[in-house]
Each structure stands twice: as C-alpha cells, then as structure tokens.
Amino acid sequence: MAKPPITQARDVDAELVLQLNKFGSAADLRSQQAKLTGAAREIRKLTGGGTDLFGKLGCYLSFEQKQLLQDAARLLDSVNQQVEHAKEKRDRDEKQAKKRRELRGRLAKQLVASNYPLPGNTLEERLEILQIALIYNRAKVFDPLYSTHQLHSKLKRWLERPKQLIGWRSEAEYFASQVGSLRCDF
C-alpha cells in the first residue's frame, strides 16, 4: 500500500471545513483563505532566495530544510484549496437562502395586502376612520395630548379646503393623505 504524499491534506475536504465552520459565513472562510495564502507565500519567500530578509535567510538553510519548507507550502496550498471549495459552496448556499428569504417576504406582503387591505380607499371608510379617532380620543385611548375639542378642531383644519396644493395633484389626494396619516397614527 502506497503512502500518500505528505503535501496533500487528504483528510481535509470541503465538507469537513464546512462542518467545522458550521456557524461561520463565506466571508469568514474568505478571511481564513487569505491567511493560508499569505502563510504559504511567506514560507516560499524563505526558499526563493530573493533580495528581502526572508530570501537572504533562506540562503543559509540546507537543501533538506528548503525542501521541508516547500512541502509545508504545498500542504498549506492543499488545505487552502479545500477552504476555497468550502467558501464557494457556502457562498452559493447563502445566496440561495437570501433569494428564498426575499421571495418569502414578497409573498408574505402580497398575502397580507390581499387578505387584510387597509381601510381608507373609499369615502365611507375615511369617514369611519375619522369617527373612530374622535370616539377613541373621547375615551382617552387615542392621542391623549389633545382634548376632544382640540382634536376635533385639528381634524377640521386638516379637512378644510387647502389654500395651496403643494405636492398633491388634487384635493381628493390631499384629503386621502391626511386621513392616511391619521390611520397610521391610530
């Protein structure tokens, strides 16, 4: 039985990386991948014989030591490759989960809008909102800062014919906006 090369991390695969980083994100894996790449690069500098400090120090290493460092760099590259595969898989999973969340949110909004429409589209509903606001104010449940008379005066001013329609195309749109604001406050 042939012994596997020491430079291959055969027991480390993408599934193991994902299992060990179960609660991490693709960004966490990307960070780990960058660290592994940097470590392998620094080790290779020792064996490369460059003009920087690591290259000069590498000149004083024996052939066996350089070979050992090159094997370590290849081993780091092997682990890095598995981390990269795991990162890509996690990234795909995160994108799919995001799409599912967005779709679920859109469907929920559509379902709520279709089954529970907000009142205020017809004149009767708008008048009912005003009536409920006045009744609840009198019972001190809605807008207790205003007395019944003050709230009545405030609503009356809102619903009087505006002198200028700044930002609204019509009076009906202005009145609908005022009642809509009251509905939201309510």
Estimated radius of gyration: 35 Å
Can you count the beta strands?
0
Q: Which stretches of 5+ consecutive residues score pLDDT under 50?
A: none
* Distance between the ends: 79 Å
Order of helices and strands: HHHHHHH
> Main sheet, how many strands, which sense, barrel?
none
Oligomer: single chain
The assigned structural class equals: mainly alpha
If helices are DSSP runs of H or I spanning 4 or more residues, what is the number of helices? 7
Please tell me the total number of domains: 2
In helices, the fraction of residues equals: over 70%
Question: Which overall shape is indicated by the principal axes computed on the Cα atoms?
Answer: rod-shaped
Average pLDDT over all residues: 82
Keywords: Coiled coil
Coiled coil: 69-96
Task: Give structural notes.
Residues 69-96 form a coiled coil. Keywords: Coiled coil. By secondary structure, the chain is mainly alpha-helical. It has 2 domains: 14-115; 123-185, no CATH class. It is built from 7 helices and no strands. The longest helix has 53 residues, at 63-115. It is rod-shaped and about 95 Å long. The model has no long low-confidence stretch (mean pLDDT 82).
